[in-house]
Amino acid sequence: MTPDDGDGFVYCERGHRHWGLFGAAGLLLTDPERGVLLQHRAWWTHHGETWALPGGARRGHESAREAATREAEEEAAVPSAAVRPTAESVVDHGGWSYTTVLANTRHPVRERVVNEESAELRWVPPDEVGSFPLHADFAAAWPALHAQLGRELVLVVDAANVVGSRPDGWWRDRAGAAERLRDRLSGLARDGVRSADVGLGGADWSWWPRVQMVVEGQARDVPPADEVEVIAAVRDGDSQIVESVRKTRDARPDDHVVVVTADRELRARVTAEGARVLGPATLLNLVDG
């Protein structure tokens, strides 16, 4: 065992014994056709004979997202490329924490029992999960997790409004300013954002957003980047943003949609479509932070 591998038991501040020197993480994977992937823990494991998630101890250098996807591959043959992480929820026991990483399948997964830690793997309809003999901590967390299954955070960014909110010379090179914003948004999508920072509440939740950046005028030819879809307005930027919100709500009505703009009229229009609103200053503080 290396000092970085994280295997071992620890006691939290509540006096409970937990597996994982650096905490632990599990993957709550949702397939829209089959349900959620549960693991029947082998009898000899910690809390054996219960049902929970593929997961395990975090390594010292790992994020929870990295640990959860690694463990799912090691225990259930779920390739990381087939997983689109959307959010994470942390339960902190004081000195030890468990992170549930919620994810959607990018394409069908052929799961299989890989090692002796699993007695069985099964796709379970979400409404039936509560009928299983669950790991006690998973059972306690399940109602809040169930409410967010399959949902994503979609950030729709009014690029012209955001870049124009700070005097950084954008008027001399609007396309360049939009590209700089796109790259910062790509970093935000990769690193994630705390739920409370985008008006969703839930201090223990974070999201990896899908970002749609709406551009117009001289910035119309800005290309997309990792995790950022760039949408060139057909007419005007405001109408395109409203249309983007409407399409997202129609296709995925349960998703959290947040529009970033300071324009009063646009804020009223997207709110009427069911979106939340975030100011440019708040977004820029997030991407700079």
Automatic annotation (TrEMBL):
Q: Which UniProt keywords apply?
A: Hydrolase
User: Which cofactors is this protein said to need?
Assistant: Mg(2+)
Q: List all Basic and acidic residues biased stretches.
A: 59-71
Which residues are in the Nudix hydrolase domain?
20-146
Q: Which SUPFAM superfamilies match?
A: Nudix
Region described as Disordered: spans on this chain: 55-74
Q: Which GO terms describe its molecular function?
A: hydrolase activity
Write the protein's name. Answer: ADP-ribose pyrophosphatase YjhB (NUDIX family)
Q: Which organism is it from?
A: Amycolatopsis thermoflava
